[in-house]
Amino acid sequence: MDEHGPLCVGIDPHASLLAEWGLPDTAAGVRDFSLRVVDALGGRVAAFKPQAAFFERHGSAGVAVLEDVLAASRAAGTLTIVDAKRGDIGSTMAAYADAFLRDGSPLAGDALTVSPYLGFGSLAPAAEAAAATGRGLFVLCLTSNKEGFEVQHARTLPDDVTGRPGASVASALAAQAAVLNAGAEPFGSVGLVVGATVGAAVRETGTDLVAVNGPLLAPGVGAQGAGARELADVFGDARRAVLASSSRGVLAAGPDAGALVSAARAAADEVTSALRG
To answer: In 49-148, which ranges are continuous DSSP H helix?
Structure first.
């Protein structure tokens, strides 16, 4: 982030983007699309975030493409966040951790997005695997979809003695991440996903992003509507921990490699000004 700017480029091979690039909606089209992005931007941005679903929809051939994208990104020296949003319990969560966080696994990136909604403690196998291999997690916390409000803003039951409402789910998740990151410099390895378009949700839920002491992955920059004002408003004093993610806002400039580089540089400059200014 310090070297390249706080921008993560999502690799999201939507059928519509493939069409705009003149590519077929097949595993071969996804491969061409994704590797062009890596070739153009590898070594130029802080991270790539391949969205696993757009590879998985093409079956085993698509998953093989995801493996190739991760390998190509490693070769280019660019960190990867596998956006798979896995979340389960016990041995199943351990199996997900083995697939996405184990040294030598072809699906392992440098970090993995995970869902905590079976209880934060259910993520223990992933947290342990990440810590053992030097990888990281990004835990869903405050997302920009309208349905997220139902769970993320919910409050725990009132304290029996005081009758005051409990903490919001989002603030509780942030507090638990902060425990795992305590004392780490410059950041711990358990980050949160906080949408760049969530408006006042951080304040409304009482979520202390500064105390998390971990990176904050912020989808929604660019085509989804978040710019400098939104980033500053959502993240406030925590904005130096933000890794802003943009996919279509950069990818729509392709397939020309020079245009992709220019779009990524412009996006990185915008978020740097908003977050570091």
So the answer is: 52-56, 59-76, 90-101, 124-133
The pLDDT of 128-136, averaged and rounded, is 97
- Rounded-to-10 torsion of CA 121, 125, 127, 130: -170
Give the pLDDT band (50/70/90) at residue 10: very high
Condensed to tens digits (0 to 9), the pLDDT of residues 211-268 reads: 999 999 999 876 556 677 788 889 999 999 999 999 999 999 999 999 999 999 999 9
Q: Which residues are identified as catalytic?
A: 85
Domain housing 12:
7-276
Domain assignment present for 65:
yes
Query: Does residue 240 lie within any of the structural domains?
Result: yes
Question: How many C-alpha atoms does 136 have within 13 Å on its Cβ side?
Answer: 23
CATH, residue 33: 3.20.20.70
CB-based contact 116:173 (threshold 8 Å): yes
Residue 34 lies in a domain: yes
Number of domains in the chain: 1
Residue recorded with tokens 């835990």: 139
Per residue in 39-75, pLDDT (tens digit) is 999 999 999 999 999 999 999 999 999 999 999 999 9
Query: Which residue matches tokens 């990136």?
Result: 109
> Can you tell me the distance from the alpha carbon of 208 to that of 259, in angstroms, rounded to the nearest whole number?
38
DSSP class of 240: G
Report if pTM > 0.70: yes
Residue 204 domain-assigned (yes or no):
yes
